[in-house]
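Box S2. Input/output pair 1.
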Amino acid sequence: MSRLFIKESPVMIIPSLAVKVGLNEAVVLQQIHYWPGISKHQIEGRTWVYNTYEEWRKQLPFWSVSTIKRTIHSLEMKGLLLSANFNEMKMDKTKWYSIDYEKLQEHEDSTIERPESPMEDTTIEQVAKEMDVSPLVKKIIPFDQIIHYLNKKTGKNYKSGSNKTKELIHARYGEGFSLEDFKRVIDLKSVEWQSDPNWNKFLRPETLFGTKFEAYLNQQEGKKKLSEEDFDLDD
C-alpha cells in the first residue's frame, strides 16, 4: 500500500528549516531548491529558476497569489532568496530566483530560541537525509571577511548581507578570484583614492567588485592619474 493518501507529488517541508525561517518560507525555499537540480540557467556563477506568481501557484495551489508574493518578499528581505531579471525582453517582468545557501547556512549555525523538541539538535542536512532529499549545497564564500576588510581599510560601514554586494562577490568568485584578490584590490584602491574627497566615495562594493575588478587587481602599486574610465559611475 502506498504511504500517500493520494497519488500526487507531495510538497516537502523540512521541520528544522521551518522553525528557523518560517513555515511558508521553508515550503517556498524547498520548492525553489528542487528546480536548480534540473535547471540549465547558469548566470554569474549560480543557477537560476524563473516562474511567474501564477506558475508558482500551480505548484502550491493551497495558497493565493498574494500569499506567495508575501512569502517570496519575506525571503528576499531575509537575504535567503536572490532575485533578478535576465529576460531577453524588457517588457517581461518574470522574476528569476536563486537561493543564497551561504546566508541559509548562517540561519542553521545561529542560536534561535524555540521550544524544546526531539528536533532540537537535528541539522537541516540530517533531516534532509532522513527524508531522502538532497542536502542543501554549501559553497563557502567569505562575504563577511571581504566586507569587514573593506570597512576596516576605508572607515566605511557596508553590510555584507546586501543582495547587490553578494551578487558582485558571487560573480567574481565565479570567475575564479579569491579572498586575497579582493584584499589586494581593496588595498590598491584605498591607497589611490582614500585621501581624495572627490574619489573616496568610489571605495564601495559597486565600484571595486564590478566589471573592472580584474583591471584593478593587475594595477601596479603606486598612485596614478585618475580618470572617469577608472570607475563604474552608476549610483
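Box S3. Input/output pair 2.
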Amino acid sequence: MKRLCIPLLAAACLAPAWAQPTLTLADALHQARQDNPELKALALEAGAVEAAGRQAALLPNPALEYVREGRASEGGSTTVQLAIPLELGGKRGARMDVARADSRAAALDLAAGRARIEAEVAAAFHAAYLAQEHVALAAQVSESGRRSSDAAARRVQAGKVSPVEEARARVAEANWRIEGVAAQKELDEARIKLASLLGSEARAIGSLAAPGAPEASALRLQALVDAAPAMQRAAAEVEAGSAALKLERAQRLPDVSLIVGSKREGPERERVRQNIVGLSIPLPLFNRNQGAILAAERRADKARAELEATRLRIRAEAQQAHARMQAALQQERLVREDVLPGARYAAEAALKGFEAGKFNYVEVLDAQRTLVQAQAQHLRVLSDFYRAKADLSRLVGNLDIKESK
C-alpha cells in the first residue's frame, strides 16, 4: 500500500500548473470582489462613514459644574449645577440627514468603484484570453512555417527548386517564431495585469462565449445611463449639498443651555441651601452663520451643475462605446464568415500545391501571410469589441450581470 501511495502523492505534488481548472469571467469577477484591495478600502471607508452617522445621532453631553467661594467657616458658598444643552432649530435632525447623505455617497462610491474594477477585470480577462489565442496562433503559424521549410528542403534535395527557396522558407519560419516570443510576452503582461486586479495569481483563461452587443435601442441605453453608478453618485452629492445647507441654516438659531443646581452659603451651622434654575442663551449679534450658509448654497448649486455635467458626459461616452461595440461586432462577423474561410483554404491549397510542385514558395508565403493577417485582424476586432464593452461597463455597470437578469 505504501508503494502505491508514494508515487500517487508525488504525482499530485508535481502536477503542472495547467492542470488547474481554467478561469472563467464569472470566477474572475467573484475573486476581484472578494480580494481586490481597492474594493476592500472602499468598503472600509463606507463602514467608517456609517459609524460617523451613528455619532451624528447622539445628543450633546451635559456639563457638571462645581464652584466654591471662600471658606465655609467664614460664610463661603458652594455651588453645584448641571448645564443641559438643548439643540434648537432641528439641528440634530439636520445633522442626521447629512450623515445619511454621506453614508449613501460612500455606498455609491463603493458601487462606482466596484463597477470600475469589474470593468477593468473584464478588460484584463479578455486581453489575457486574446493573448492566449495570439500565442496559439503564433504556434500554429510556426508549425505551418516548419512544414513549408521541410517541404522546401525536400524539393531542394530533389533538385526541383533553388536553395534560395529553402533559405526564404527558413527566414519566414524564424520570423514567425519571433512572433511567437512576442505573443508570449504579451500573454505574460496580460496575466500580470489580471493577477494584480484579482489579488492572486491568474490561471489559464477558459473559452469565451461569442461576442454579442447589448440591445441597441436609445431608450435602453438611456435607462442604463440614468442608473449608472456615477450618475447616482452625482445625485447623492446633490442630496448631501441640500442636507448640508439645511444644517447650516439650522445653525443660525443658537442653542440654549438649561441650568439646574444647588447652592449652599453661610457659616457652617447656619448654611442655607438655595435651588438654582437658569438659562444660558448666546446672543447672535455678529455671527449668524451667514458665511457658512452662503458657502453651503454655492456648494449645493455646484453639485446640481456637476450632476448635469455628469449626465452629459456619461451619455456621450456611453453612446460612443456602444457605437464602437456595434462596429467591432459587424467587423468580427465579416472577418469570421467571409475572410477567414477563404484565407484558410488558400493557405492550405498553396502549401499542398507547393509540396506537389505546382506552386513556388512565393505563392505559399503570400497565402500564409494573408491567413495570418486575417487571423490577426480577427483578434484585433475582438479586442476592440471587448475594450468598448469594458468602457461601457465602467460607465453603466457590469453589462454581463445586467443582461443576465
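Caption for Box S3: Confidence is low (pLDDT under 50) at residues 1-19, 401-405. The first strand starts at residue 63 and ends at 69.
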